[in-house]
Amino acid sequence: xxxxxxxxxxxxxxxxxxxxxxxxxxxxxxxxxxxxxxxxxxxxxxxxxxxxxxxxxxxxxxxxxxxxxxxxxxxxxxxxxxxxxxxxxxxxxxxxxxxxxxxxxxxxxxxxxxxxxxxxxxxxxxxxxxxxxxxxxxxxxxxxxxxxxxxxxxxxxxxxxxxxxxxxxxxxxxxxxxxxxxxxxxxxxxxxxxxxxxxxxxxxxxxxxxxxxxxxxxxxxxxxxxxxxxxxxxxxxxxxxxxxxxxxxxxxxxxxxxxxxxxxxxxxxxxxxxxxxxxxxxxxxxxxxxxxxxxxxxxxxxxxxxxxxxxxxxxxxxxxxxxxxxxxxxxxxxxxxxxxxxxxxxx
Length: 347
Fold this sequence. Notes:
Radius of gyration: 36 Å
C-alpha cells in the first residue's frame, strides 16, 4: 500500500523562489509548502494553477482575489471556483469557465448568478442535479427542467411544485423518461393518461403507484406483460388471486417460487398451470413433486411433463405406456413378447 508523504523542505527552501519553482514544476501541490511570501508571489501561483487549478486553494487571499489568476485556475479545474474570493464569485466569466469542468460549481455561486438562465442551462447540461442550486424561478422554467432531465432523470425532484402538478408538462417529460413518475404530484399519479404513458415507456416505475392503481386489475393487465415483477408490490389479496398469478407466470414462470404456498399446493391450480407450462413441475413442493399418483395425473394432463420428471418416475411412466400399447395391439404381439418386455423393467 502506498502512502502520501509530504516533502520535507527546510525553512530556507520554502522561502527560496527558485527552489520552490522547481518543486512546483514537479508537483503543483508543493505550493502548499511554500512560505506565505511565496504563496503571494504572482509568478509562482500562476505556474501552480496552470498545472492544476485546484492549487488556487493554497494561494494568498490577495491572489485568490486576482481575476486573471482565478480565471486561469477555473479554466484548468472547475473545482478552483471554491477557492475564488467572494467578490470574484460574482464574475459570470469565471463561473462559466468553472462549469466547463465542474458543473456543481453552481452550488458556490451567489444568488444573482443562480438566477441567470444561460449559466444554469450550461450547468444542468453538464449535470442535471445542478438544478438543485438554481433559483426558484429557474426551477420553474420548463426549458431548464427538461434539459436537466435529459442528463439525469432524478433531477426532476428539484423542479418547482407548479411544474410537478402541470399535466401537460409532465406528459412531455414522460417521453424523455418515465422515472419522473416518483416525483410528480400525487394527484397526477392516478391519472389514466399518465399511467398509460408510464406503462408504455417503463412500467417498472409503477412500483411507486398509489394503492388504488395497483389494486386495479385493468391496469395490472397492462403492467404485468411489461413488468411481471410488479407482483411483489401487490397487496396480499391480489397476490393470492389465481387470475393475476396465472397472468404473471405467463410472462415470467420463474416467479412460481414466489407465489403463496396455498397456490403452490393447490392441485387444481397446478393442473391448470401444467396444461400450458409442463416445466413448472421443477418448482413444485416436495409433497407434490414426489407423489406418484399426482405425477401420473400430471402426465395425463400434459405428456410433455415427462422430460422434467426424476429418472425412476419417468421410466415407470414410459413402461406403463408401452404396456398399454402392447395390450392394445395383442393381435400383433405374441404373449411371449409381452412377458419379456414386462420382465425387462421389473427385474
